[in-house]
Structure formats: structure tokens, C-alpha cells
Amino acid sequence: MVGQRKTVSTSAENRFLKFGDTKVFPGERKKVFLDVASLYDYTQLNIPIEVIRGKQPGPIMFICSAIHGDEINGVETIRKLLKKKALKGIKGTLIAVPVVNVFGYNNKSRYLPDRRDLNRNFPGSPNGSLASRLAHFFIKEVVSKCTHGIDLHTGAIHRGNLPQLRASLDDAETKELAKCFGVPVVIDAALRDGSLREAARKRKVKTLLFEGGEALRFEPHVIQQALRGCLAVMRKVGMLPPSLQPLKVRQSFLAKSSYWLRASHSGAFSAFKKLGDHVEAGDVLAVISDTFGENPYPVVASEAGIVIGVSYIPLVNRGEAMFHVATFKNTAKVKNAIDLLDEL
């Protein structure tokens, strides 16, 4: 069973887990509101979490979203997950954190009030900036208690991402969990300094990062894929029993690499490709032109691959990212798997 090596011992499971001043014992399900800071008028802000502990021992997993406050597909994913009846039979502990960056979420912003990116400030410090303190608090209260984690993201504002998984695939267990998540595109993503994934790995917490959709949107097809993936991973590590309904196998493909196509000139562009499309080397993905539709400049793919990220703003300055393309050994198989997603 994947994850068994990291399962917390029975003696540890028989004790409470503490979140703030709240103790949660095996067999209990509690909502906890962790005080993090206050606004200028002293209105208190807190991180809402729900802790579900099974009566039997097992892994401890966090599932979080809105580290970037405007990336809200994950918020809805967790809300749907918490309604699943299967959680009544959970082994181990699920720590669900729908909103980590409560400041950004309430302001519909990616960032914290000081314009810092929370996902570049882990593991943080109790004496640093607001971002650093919030990062430290989340590591202390949530991540440090866990064996596994899933971090849910979307594209930035006005950018869309094809549902995809990013993980450090040099770890065999993490690679197996990434494949079991069930999205066609899996990227062996290098750890970024200050990211939650990097901080979690240093604490030996097996962590997956899901990307899908765009900021400030609830997109049902993305939410459904994220939800199915979270449940699949929970089953894989033994937190949930196998599904009573036979599930179709969803193939995952490891990307060899990825590259961005950037605007060679400023102007307005007309796109000919969308998320999930297959492109060949030399294909024209878009044409940039002036306001009269003249002086066109084609945006050309340098390698065959799948479009996994796009900019939805048709106005670009020279050098701005327009298309993100992932490359594979067999692009046609990946495209077929993407086309089949809605049928599963």
C-alpha cells in the first residue's frame, strides 16, 4: 500500500492532534478557525480548517487551496470533498484547508496586502514579514503534522491552465501518487525556493500540486477532475476504501519538458489554438498585428506538444508569455487521453 511507510504509529494516532487551542481525537470531526492576524480596524482574520479523524490509524493528509488568494477552483473542490459520504470510513486524518491566504481571498487578489507572494515565502519565520509569518504559521499548524499533502492551484488572472499535476518525480512514492491522480499531463517540476512544496518535502511530506483553470472562476470540469484526483490519492494511500463502482483507468503521461511561447512584438493577437490542443513544430498558434490588422507576426511552435497554458488577454507587449507547451514522447496518445476526460 502506498503511504504505509509514512503512516503514523497506532500509539501516536490514539492521542489528540492540536490545532490552535482545539484538540481533535480519533473518531472526531471538527471545524477549527486559526487566528492569524487582524485588519486595520482590529477585525480578526482566521484560516478555516476542517479536521476529520478516523477511528483507525493511517496517513495524515492536508488538502489546501487559495495559497494564491484568487485561485478559487480548489476552494470549491474541497467544499465538494467534505460532503462525500466516503469520509465517514476514513482511516488516518484529513486536514482540509479551503483558504490559506485569507487576505488575498477576501480581496480577490493573488497576493498578500504587502504585495508578497505567499508561495515564495515558505517555510517562513515567526518574526518576518506578514507573508513569512503566515507561511510559518501554516507549516507549524498544518504541514508539520502530515505525511502527505495536495496543494490546489489555478492559472493566474487572465491565464488558463489545462488540468495538470506537478511533483518531484525523483521520489518513487510521489511519482506513483502523481500517476494515480489521473490527469493526462504530469510535469516533473523543479522545486522553487520558498514554495510550499519545497518546505513540505524538507519535512518528508509527500506533496502533489494540481493546476487547472484560471483565477476567480469556478470551472466545473476542472473542479471535478481535482476532486476525482484527491479521492484517488486518498484511496491509494489507504485512507479510503476502494470505490464500490469500477472506475475507468485514466492514463497519465510524463512530460519530457515544457516551453513558453512569448510575444516577439507588441500588439493584439488572434489565437488559433486553445488549451489541450496538439501542436506540431512549425504550427502557427497565433498572429500578432497592429490595430489595423496589418504588420502581422506569427507565433510559431518550436516543438511538437500539447498546449497546457494560455493567456486570455489578446493584448501583449513584446516578451509577454502567450502559450505554455508541454512536450511528450507520444503527443498523440496524450491528446487522446485529454479528449476522453469528459467521458470518464
Q: Would you kindly provide a brief summary of this structure?
A:
The protein has 344 residues and is of the alpha+beta class.
Topology order in helix (H) and strand (E) letters: HEEEEEHEHHEEHEHEHEEEEEEEEEH
**Structural shape:** globular
Percent strand: 25-35%
CATH-derived architecture of the largest domain: 3-Layer(aba) Sandwich
Mean pLDDT: 93
CATH H-level superfamily title of the largest domain: Zn peptidases
Proportion of helical residues? 10-25%
Note down, in words, how this protein is organized.
With 344 residues, this protein is of the alpha+beta class. It has two domains: 4-236, Zn peptidases (Aminopeptidase); 255-343, RNA polymerase II/Efflux pump adaptor protein, barrel-sandwich hybrid domain (OB fold (Dihydrolipoamide Acetyltransferase, E2P), Beta Barrel). It contains eight helices and 19 strands. The chain has helices at 10-13, 73-81, 102-106, 130-141, 172-181, 196-202, 220-236, 331-340, and strands at residues 17-19, 22-24, 29-38, 44-53, 56-65, 91-97, 148-153, 159-167, 185-188, 206-213, 253-254, 257-262, 267-271, 278-279, 284-289, 297-300, 305-311, 315-316, 321-327. The strands form three sheets. Strands 3, 4, 5, 6, 7, 8, 9, 10, 11, 12, 14, 17 and 19 form a 13-stranded mixed beta sheet that branches. Strands 16-15-13-18 form a four-stranded antiparallel beta sheet, with no helix packed on it. Strand 8, helix 5 and strand 9 form a beta-alpha-beta unit. Helix 2 (73-81) crosses helix 7 (220-236). It starts with 9 loop residues before the first helix and ends with a helix.
